[in-house]
Each structure stands twice: as C-alpha cells, then as structure tokens.
Write a structure and sequence with these properties.
By secondary structure, the chain is of the alpha+beta class. It has 2 domains: 6-71 and 179-359, Zn peptidases (Aminopeptidase, 3-Layer(aba) Sandwich); 76-163, Elongation Factor Tu (Ef-tu), domain 3, CATH 2.40.30. The protein has 10 helices and 18 strands. The chain has helices at 6-16, 25-35, 126-129, 147-152, 181-197, 219-228, 273-285, 302-305, 333-349, 352-359; strands spanning 41-44, 50-55, 62-68, 73-79, 85-90, 102-107, 110-117, 139-141, 160-163, 168-169, 175-178, 205-211, 232-240, 261-266, 269-270, 291-295, 314-321, 329-332. β4 and β5 form a beta hairpin. α1 runs antiparallel to α2 (25-35), α1 packs antiparallel against α5 (181-197) and α7 crosses α9. The termini are far apart.
Length: 361
C-alpha cells in the first residue's frame, strides 16, 4: 500500500474504527482527535453525536455540516448450544453481499473474529440453490465449540458486530477502498471543512457534526439539530456511483472523480432550491466540478435537519461511491477534496443577508 499522507492516515483511522448504530464510541473518539484542535468547543447531544463549534469573526448565521458516525452492521441476538451466533441486521443489508464475509464481534473483552455462514449449497435442493439465502438462516461462526465457551470469551446478546475490511489505497492511488465509507467520509469532510476555514475571514458559526444512528432512522441528526438550531444545514454522505458494468445513466448517472453530487431530492426531502442554486453558483464561480443526482430509495440526515423547529434550508452533498452497504466500498479522493473545497467556499460567502435571500429564493 502507498505511504499514507496526513489526510489518508485520518481516513484510515476513521474507516478502520468500528461503530454500528448505538455504539459509535470508536469513530467518535477518532473524529474528536482530528477536529478538537480546529474547534472552539466540543459538545455532545444525549445520544452521543459529536458537535464541534468554530466561530467566525462575527455573530453570523449558524452553519451545520453533518456526517454520520455509524456504519451498518449487526447485533448478536442469541448464542446456540454449539456456539454459533444468531444476529439482527442494524441498518440496511442485501443478503447477496453477506455470506462468507469476515466480521468482528465487539465484546467488553475485545474483538473476536468470525465469519457469516449458512447451510452449504451442496446439501440444498436444486431449486433452493438458485435463491439467495435469507438473513434469518445465516449465523456467525466464531470457532467456539459450545455456548458456554462463547460466553467465556465474553460474547453476550446485544454485542455489536462489524464488517472487516482494512483501509486500502488501490493501484490507482486516487481510488480508496474501505468499510464504513458510509459515512466516515462525511465525518472527514466535516473535519476538513473546519481545517480549511482556519484563518479565513467569515461571519458564521460553523458546526462540524458527527451524528449517530443515521442508518436506523436519522436519529442523531434529530437530536443534534435540535441542540444547534442551525440557519443552514448540509448533510455530507455517500451516494451511488453509476460507472460500473451493467449500470446505465437511467439507473445512476454519477461518475467517480467528476465532483461531489448535489442531491435534488431523496426519499426524505427535496433539496432547498435557493440553497441548491447558491451552492452550484458558488461551484461554477470557483471551477469546482459537481454532479446533480437524486436518491429515490434512500435518505440522508438532511431529512431530519430540514424539519427542525420552523424549518432549516438544507441540502445533501454526497460522494459517488461504489458498493455502499457492503463490506468493501470504493470512492475517489478528488471527489472528497472537491466537496470540502465547495463547502468552504459556500461558507465564506454566507452571511445573515445571504441566508435571508436563500430562504426566500
């Protein structure tokens, strides 16, 4: 693997950290490590979302830039007499990508490696072999010989289970593979936005946020936004890359390396038109590439941000990513850097008058 620069090292630490919904301590600690020195204050809501506050040079608008800390994973629900673990998915999983994948069971005594298993196809009826295995028929094999042995190792119902995939810089060094890009890349964007704003002249108070429990219902976005009460909100997340074999522009039109995605609508919201126009105008002025997209079958934290109090103009800015909601996803470093640059330029142009103009545009 290529030698990691400071940014890649941060991305490695964020994605290698384990944190399913309801148990985001590891990625939260990593985010705090990288964002604390860039902030005036670190706060937390009562669900565990991290809120880093960076004040500008005046009492201007509150701008929220939120990525979510949690990743999809599993939870142990029971241990059978032979020591196999049964589990509940936490977040959205597709059965086809789960079998024979390595996982870490997070116990109080440390992580225990396992693999997701099922009945072998060799003993299934011919018709059943053609079908995907239902999640309820899968289990996790940790190599234990009995329920008692598994419990002696510290495993209990309720333990979190996370995918295993080490951060990897690919041969094309712009291409980065890891678990949990959804959504540690959003957390990284929030960190880098605060880093790039250091020393910049603007009147706004910027909130770099790592929300919790997005994958199970945008829950941390609800509590964090209630705490912040922002004037403008950005959710930064992953989107769908449409540049793999078999995917047409009709299915998904964004391409990796062509700029961040400006989400026009998703299942949880319609992007605020005034804010969307302001963001794309700013991108055009600064020659920052971007792509329009929509997500009919999913949502982001913007879905809760925009409904806070009497309403918050909000927009989702996402990174085209291959193989999201699997063990190993891939994204393009240029898209990450252009998303950061775009949000920074937007914040530099915002003030109270501009926010009023956006709201009523």
């Amino acid at each position: 693997m290529a030698k990691l620069d400071e940014t890649l090292q941060m991305l490695k630490e964020l994605t290698d950290a384990n944190g399913v919904p309801g148990n985001e301590r590891e990625p939260r600690d990593v985010m705090k490590k990288h964002i604390e020195s860039l902030s005036d204050e670190i706060m937390y809501d009562n669900l565990g979302s991290l809120i880093a506050v960076k004040k500008g040079n005046a009492e201007g608008p509150k701008i929220m830039v939120a990525g979510h800390l949690d990743e999809i994973g599993f939870m142990v629900t029971r241990i059978d007499d032979k020591g196999f673990l049964y589990f509940q998915t936490v977040g959205g999983w597709w059965e086809q990508v789960m079998l024979a994948q390595r996982v870490n069971v997070m116990t109080r005594n440390g992580n225990i490696m396992g693999v997701i298993g099922s009945k072998p196809p060799h003993i299934l009826p011919a018709e059943q072999r053609k079908k995907s295995v239902d999640k309820k028929d899968m289990f996790i094999d940790i190599g234990a010989s009995s329920k008692e042995e598994a419990m002696e190792w510290g495993i209990k119902p309720g333990d979190s289970v996370v995918p295993v995939c080490e951060f990897t810089v690919m041969n094309n060094e712009k291409m980065l593979m890891a678990k949990a890009w959804d959504n540690r890349i959003g957390c990284a964007i929030a960190i880098e936005v605060l880093r790039k704003l250091k020393g910049e002249n603007h009147p706004n108070t910027v909130y770099g946020v790592g929300t919790v429990q997005e994958e199970v219902g945008l829950r941390g976005a609800t509590t964090a936004t209630n705490m912040i009460k922002p004037d403008i909100g950005f959710a930064v997340d992953v989107g769908i890359a449409g540049d793999t074999p078999g995917v047409s522009d009709k299915d998904a039109q964004s391409k990796m390396g062509k700029g961040p995605q400006i989400i026009m609508y998703d299942a949880s919201m319609v992007g605020h038109k005034g804010l969307r126009d302001f963001v794309t105008d700013t991108a055009d002025e600064n020659n920052i590439p971007y792509q329009f997209d929509s997500i009919a079958g999913g949502g982001t934290d913007s879905g809760k941000i925009h409904l806070t109090a009497n309403g918050v103009p909000a927009l989702s800015i996402t990174i085209a990513t291959r193989y999201i909601h699997t063990h190993a996803a891939i994204l393009h470093r240029d898209d990450f850097e252009n998303a950061v640059n775009l949000i920074v330029e937007v914040i530099k142009k915002l003030d109270a008058d501009k926010v009023k103009e956006i709201i009523f545009n």
